[in-house]
Structures are given as structure tokens and as C-alpha cells.
């Protein structure tokens, strides 16, 4: 392996360390009409969906700040 190749490899590793990436998960999938049984479950599919949606929106806003 040449000295230049080692230098380039080390430089690439340093750049990755300097730029932490925050990935945004895919948008939560909305439950289908038949997914909720309508019996008032403590942890309803809609509760889970809205919690995941809030987390998605928080992560998205952290990685995509609004421009003024």
C-alpha cells in the first residue's frame, strides 16, 4: 500500500468523524381504518402512530432547520 493511499484513507476517516450525520427515519405509516379495534385499548395503534409522528417531526426539524 502506498503512503498516499494511507493518507487518503486516514483523511476520509477523519472527515466522517467531524461530520456526525443524523438520519431521519422514514415517515411513520398511518394505520389503516381496520387497524384500530375501537375498544379503547391503552396503547391504541393511533397513539403509537401519533407518538412516532411527533418524534419524526422533531428529528426532521432538527436536521432541516427552517430558513428565514
Automatic annotation (TrEMBL):
InterPro entries reported for this sequence = Oxidoreductase-like_N (IPR019180), OXLD1 (IPR039251)
Top-level lineage group: Eukaryota
Q: Which residues form the Oxidoreductase-like domain?
A: 23-58
Annotated region (Disordered) at: 1-33
What's one Pfam family here? Answer: Oxidored-like
Where are the compositionally biased (Basic and acidic residues) regions?
Answer: 8-20
Q: Which PANTHER family match?
A: OXIDOREDUCTASE-LIKE DOMAIN-CONTAINING PROTEIN 1
Task: Name it.
Answer: Oxidoreductase-like domain-containing protein
In its UniProt entry, the species of origin is given as: Dorcoceras hygrometricum
Lineage of this protein's species? Eukaryota, Viridiplantae, Streptophyta, Embryophyta, Tracheophyta
